[in-house]
Structures are given as structure tokens and as C-alpha cells.
Specification:
There is one protein chain. The protein is mostly helical. It has one domain. Helix content is 68%, strand content 0%. The chain has 3 helices and no strands. α1 runs antiparallel to α2 and α2 packs antiparallel against α3. It is flat, with a radius of gyration of 18 Å.
Length: 113
Amino acid sequence: MKTSKDRFDLEEEIMKLHSFAEDLETVSNLIMENLEISSAVQDKSVNVLIGIETMLKIHADKMMDTMAQCFKLKPYDAYTEYMAEKKRELTNAGSDCIMKKCGNCKPTGETDD
């Protein structure tokens, strides 16, 4: 039996956060597909789940960054650029609407005419 944990155990625990975030995405999709739930309740519920999912991913990335620095796993400058790119992706993904997954959102300037 293993008595002490190492960086691989830490990395595994951090990766579980990403898996949990993916589970939240699955739940969000199930809520949006459920026709018995009103659209207002769907929107509120899915918004909360997407927010939690995003926070988990950001926190997991931050933890991986800390681990990379502590164990000197990657040149920090390269990892910092990677993290900046991830942040840009998250920012751009939500720039039009946090609910892009719902299918109800229209690009800016588009109407229901």
C-alpha cells in the first residue's frame, strides 16, 4: 500500500476536476433537452451549472500551473503563454452569450423577424 503521495497523485486529483466539469456539462445538456422543465428554469439552472463548470476548469488550470511551477515541470514562460491562451478561449467562448449551448441565442444584430 502506498503511504505517501507524490506529484502524480496531485496531477490525478487535479484532472478529476476536469472530469467533474465535463459531468456538469452533461447534466446541463440533459436539462436543456427536458421538455417538461420550463425554459426559464432551464436557463437559470444551466447558467448556474455552466458557471460552476467554468470555475472548476479555471481552478484546475490554476492548480496545474502551481504544480508546474513547484515541480519545475515546464519552462514557466511557455506555460504562462499556454494559460493566457486558455483564458482567451474562455473569454471568447462567452463573449456573445454564456448560453451558446441553448440554441436560443442569436449573433449580435440578428433578430427573430
